[in-house]
Design brief:
The complex is a heterodimer of chains A (about 110) and B (about 110). Chain A is mainly β. Chain A has one domain (about 5-110): Sandwich (Immunoglobulin-like). Chain A is about 0% helix and about 60% strand. In chain A, the strands form two sheets. In chain A, strands 2, 4, 5, 6, 9, 10 and 11 form a seven-stranded mixed beta sheet that branches. Chain A has a four-stranded antiparallel beta sheet with strand order 1-3-8-7, with no helix packed on it. With about 110 residues, chain B is mainly beta. Chain B has one domain: Sandwich (Immunoglobulin-like). In chain B, the strands form two sheets. In chain B, strands 2, 4, 5, 9, 10 and 11 form a six-stranded mixed beta sheet that branches. In chain B, strand 4 (about 35-40) and strand 5 (about 45-50) form a beta hairpin. At the A-B interface, strand 5, strand 9 and strand 10 of A face strand 5 of B.
């Protein structure tokens, strides 16, 4: 998985609780992305980062926030988890130029009860 | 909204047959078209990609055909094998926010012996 780790790999939480997912890379890539994957929806971009402390919203950003204090770490926070946020979350990295491959992590499976 | 439409949602092919997955896009600024392969429990991984300056790209048993005028591209898997059973996603990027990938919703391919 191209030097990308995600933690935790599995998590069960209750509605209303905050949740933080971590993505760590060892490739020194500039760009990092958070996607969610749901049946029938494919991969949808939540937030992305184009450098330390530089982040922007994706297609489905409501209810999520991100932070990037170091090149290698990109955190995704669900401020107050809802059942609709039950999903598989993937982190990806890339150099950031058009045509550059995005490399995906192994994913975090989140269940919100 | 930028979209990439992928079909079919699922595909069953006999071993040795040809698997064909189609995608259509709307944004004429797209200039990079990758296909990703995803096995259960894993993150997506780049399979093959094409730019619109060529109409076809082949890598082993995998071929991308590209029709710029029709804004369509397709993945052909020749001599399909049970090990090819996976979910396949087409994607596109280019233009404003060029490093961001827009994904199709995926095709689940099952190759039966």
């Amino acid at each position: 998985d191209a030097g990308i780790t995600q933690s935790p790999r599995h998590k069960v939480t209750e509605t209303g609780t905050p949740v933080t997912l971590r993505c760590h890379q060892t490739e020194n890539h500039r760009y990092m992305y958070w996607y969610r994957q749901d049946p029938g929806h494919g991969l949808r971009l939540i937030h992305y980062s184009y450098g330390v402390k530089d982040t922007d919203k994706g297609e489905v950003s409501d209810g999520y926030s991100v932070s990037r204090s170091k090149t290698e770490d990109f955190l995704l926070t669900l401020e107050s988890a809802t059942s609709s946020q039950t999903s598989v979350y993937f982190c990806a990295i890339s150099e950031g130029r058009s045509g550059e491959t995005q490399y995906f992590g192994p994913g975090t499976r989140l269940l919100v009860l | 909204q930028q979209q990439v439409k992928q079909s079919p949602q699922s595909l069953i092919v006999q071993k040795g047959g040809i698997s064909i997955i189609n995608c259509a896009y709307e944004n004429t600024a797209f200039d990079y078209f990758p296909w990703y392969q995803q096995f259960p429990g894993k993150g997506p991984a780049l399979l093959i990609a094409i730019r619109p300056d060529v109409s076809e790209k082949k890598e082993g048993r995998f071929t991308i055909s590209f029709n710029k005028s029709a804004k369509q591209f397709s993945l052909h898997i020749m001599d399909s094998q049970p090990g090819d059973s996976a979910t396949y996603f087409c994607a596109a990027s280019g233009g404003a926010g060029s490093y961001q990938l827009t994904f199709g919703k995926g095709t689940k391919l099952s190759v039966i012996p």
